[in-house]
Write a structure and sequence with these properties.
Strand content: 15-25%
Distance between the termini: 18 Å
Number of helices: 2
Number of strands: 6
Order of helices and strands: EEEHEHEE
Radius of gyration: 14 Å
Helix content: 10-25%
Shape: globular
Strand order of the largest sheet: 2-3-5-6
């Protein structure tokens, strides 16, 4: 299957993924869907933290190759989950869990929908 890629896509990049208090991927719910927030660099993560009023706390994160996040980690979750790239930034993008972005088994319009 052809995966969506673009100059601004996280697929070919190493992204920063904040961790929750249990060490899992930090997610945010929006529009009835969970989103894994990922960032291109520490500045983008800092903008997000400031926008949330949490700029003073330490944000623990992992570095993950975007393709691994979309192709392995998202499908391993027990629920449909999209990826939010640089939330709270001027270059923010949303990658919903649909065919062409995540594997069909994890896509809302793929096997998950069946």
């Amino acid at each position: 299957m052809q995966r969506t890629t673009s100059a601004r896509s996280p697929r070919g990049r190493v992204v920063l993924v904040p961790l929750d208090v249990r060490g899992g991927l930090w997610t945010s719910e929006l529009g009835g869907l969970d989103w894994i927030c990922v960032f291109s660099d520490e500045e983008a993560l800092a903008r997000f933290a400031e926008a949330r009023g949490e700029g003073d706390r330490e944000w623990t994160y992992r570095r993950v190759v975007g393709a691994r996040l979309l192709d392995e980690l998202v499908p391993a979750l027990d629920l449909p989950c999209g990826v939010a790239w640089n939330a709270a930034g001027p270059d923010g993008l949303a990658f919903p869990p649909v065919r062409g972005i995540v594997p069909d088994a994890a896509a809302l319009d793929g096997e998950m929908a069946a």
